[in-house]
Each structure stands twice: as structure tokens, then as C-alpha cells.
Amino acid sequence: xxxxxxxxxxxxxxxxxxxxxxxxxxxxxxxxxxxxxxxxxxxxxxxxxxxxxxxxxxxxxxxxxxxxxxxxxxxxxxxxxxxxxxxxxxxxxxxxxxxxxxxxxxxxxxxxxxxxxxxxxxxxxxxxxxxxxxxxxxxxxxxxxxxxxxxxxxxxxxxxxxxxxxxxxxxxxxxxxxxxxxxxxxxxxxxxxxxxxxxxxxxxxxxxxxxxxxxxxxxxxxxxxxxxxxxxxxxxxxxxxxxxxxxxxxxxxxxxxxxxxxxx
Length: 264
Description:
alpha/beta, 8 helices
């Protein structure tokens, strides 16, 4: 989804979630820090498993994503992609879903945005507003967690210039670079993956996604075609201007999966 403005994080603004469900789920994520540096690792793994629903529940998959993964979704538009995963998992307790928009912007821009958020929160998802993808590793909540999968579908700064304009391409390259740097910090070292779904061909191939990932210390693990029909209910929104609630043409797209270079 499009990332059309930069929001300075204000910790106090985010401490109150929009529903008690989100608040209680966020509490579930909090680290149990009792100052004991020698805490037994097996007990820690068991506790994490309980929080993310791995104990006593059947693992469910949707494409590249599992209900046992801790998933961070970045740059969501109307939150329909997150909701598609949650419905497939029959839960969203393993998910944190973020948007650059405020709750007020969400209500103005998307006809189903608020309803999707309510459904997600009822299923246990932590929903965070005003999260800048290029600064998210400093976010007061996200900075304390590490994720198995970090997903950003169709990153874009918005239409400030024509799509093929050099200035527009430069801005999108900066967004990609900032996101990858921050996602690397929040990624689990073992088996963690950063997924970027991206349109193929001109001018998108000029964003140098693969080169930027390599320079940051990420290695391409796999690339697969992105199929929107694999995610029922997902709407790829323009997210910008008077047509923010309209879909944009996808054409041929690819999901690039990156891992930390040393783990490949």
C-alpha cells in the first residue's frame, strides 16, 4: 500500500489502542523481564508458543504464511490483506498490522477500513496507526519484538510526480531502503523473512530493490509470482488522492523473500 507521508512517532499517542481487545493483545506481547539473565530458554519458548497460539491448536497456512509465524504487516491500506490472513488462520493473535494513516485518515479514505480493523482486533490482532515504515524499528512497541515474517505489499510514496519521473523513482527508492533497514532490525535471526510484493517491469525495476537489499545485508531467498486471488477479500488500494479507495492495476507482480545474508 502507498506510504504517502512521514509521521513522527509520539509514544503517548499510541499507548491507548482503539479497543480493549487490541490493548489486551498488546499486553500479551510484552516481554517478561524479571532481570534474570539466566532464564531457562525452554521455558521462554513455551511461553512464546502459548502467546502465539502454537500449543493446542492446529497450524494453518495461507500461501507463505502460517498461524505459527509471528507476522508484522507494514503499510496496510484498508487492512484487507491482514484480515484475509486472519480469516485463514481463524485468529490474528500472531499478527501485528500497521498503517501510516491515523484512525481518522482510515475512516476518511476507505469504506471498509474501520470495519476491517474491528474484525482484526476481535480476532486478537494488534493494530497500530501512524507507523512510518522507514522508522518503525524505533517505534515504542515494535522495537521490543522480533518477527518471523515482515510483509510490505506494494510500497509506494504516493503520486507526487509521474510514476516514471526521476524524482518519483528516487523517493520510492528511499522508501524501500528505509523499510529494509528497519525491517532487518525487527527480523528474527533464525529463519526470519522479509517479504516485499512489487510490480514487475518499467519503471519499478528502477527502484533497485535487490541491490538495496544486498547492500543492507539481506539475501534473496526466493521470488514467486504474487497472486491476488490467493488472498480472498484483499483489495490493493490506491491509498492516495481522491481515488484512495479504488484499486490500482497490478499486472505481473512478484513477492521477493529476503533473509539475513549470514543465514542463507
